[in-house]
Amino acid sequence: MKPFSFIFLIAAFFTSCEFTDGNIDGKTVKEELRHRRIQRLTEGEILEKAMQMGDEITSNAQKTLVTQLSAALAKGGTEYAIPFCKLSALNILDSLGKPYQATIRRVSHKARNPIDKPDTVEAVYLDGYLYNLEQKLPLEPNVQVLRSTQEVLYTAPIMLSAPLCLQCHGNPETEINTATLALLKTNYPQDQAIGFKLNEFRGMWSITMSRKELVMSLQKKK
Ligand code: HEC
Fold first, then answer.
1. Where are the chain's structural domains?
2. pLDDT tens, residue by residue, 21-65
3. Protein residues with CB under 6 Å of any ligand 1 atom
4. Residue-wise DSSP of 4-52
5. 66-111 pLDDT tens trace
6. Taking the CA of residue 129 as centre, how many other CA atoms within 13 Å lie in the half-sphere pointing to its CB?
7. Which of 112, 119, 161, 164 to mutate to test the pocket of ligand 1 (most atoms within 8 A of CB)?
């Protein structure tokens, strides 16, 4: 048989199949497509919900952090305010995190507290932000399903956006006072979080949410 006619035969075979079984197959295919579309929509909805929750948690946490830090600075100066940059000092973390069983962390490439160094998954996203920074690309919040654990990871950049941050993260010679510097060195012997400039990239929010909780909250709404 010539190759040409062979190809033609195959083509005819497939075409005829389509016509004869069209009804049954078409129905199954339609069902399958509908099913897949629902699944895809749900995945999109979950990520959208996670993005919304992440934005809400980080903007609330950031606001509370700045308010409490400012109040502490006004009350007792920089040394007194040192413990107020701890996330655990914010009593909102529980109330914000609980609904989605969220774990809220800040991680940094130049961490003050060693527990704020990124884990292997976080490092991927932190490096992503550092890469974007180098390439002068925008730094955006991001959501991602972690296939290994079926959790959703929300990340967002943290910028050193208020001048008050410099009192503890700025230039050690000109912006951090001697007593504060000494106290920071005692409390954080491995401190890498000094020498930052205003509006510099300081680190990343890392919020892990339970996918199941997100799905359940979306289902409740429907
Ligand atoms: C009064 C001192 C002080 C001020 C002001 C301050 N911080 Fe901190 N910051 C700290 C301390 C102390 C830690 C370590 C907290 C801990 O042990 O969990 C820290 C930790 C952090 C971390 C977590 C990562 C790491 O390095 O451990 C980020 C992010 C951060 N600060 C950002 C900021 C930003 C942004 C501002 C301004 C809004 C700010 N800080 C103002 C003292 C300060």
1. 34-221
2. 445 567 777 777 665 555 554 788 999 999 999 999 999 889 989
3. 66, 69, 78, 81-82, 85-86, 106, 108, 111-113, 116, 158, 160, 162, 164-165, 167-169, 193, 202-203
4. HHHHHHHHHHHHHHHHHSHHHHHHHHHHHHHHHHHHHHHHHHHHHHHHH
5. 999 999 999 999 999 999 999 877 776 777 777 778 899 999 999 9
6. 24
7. 112
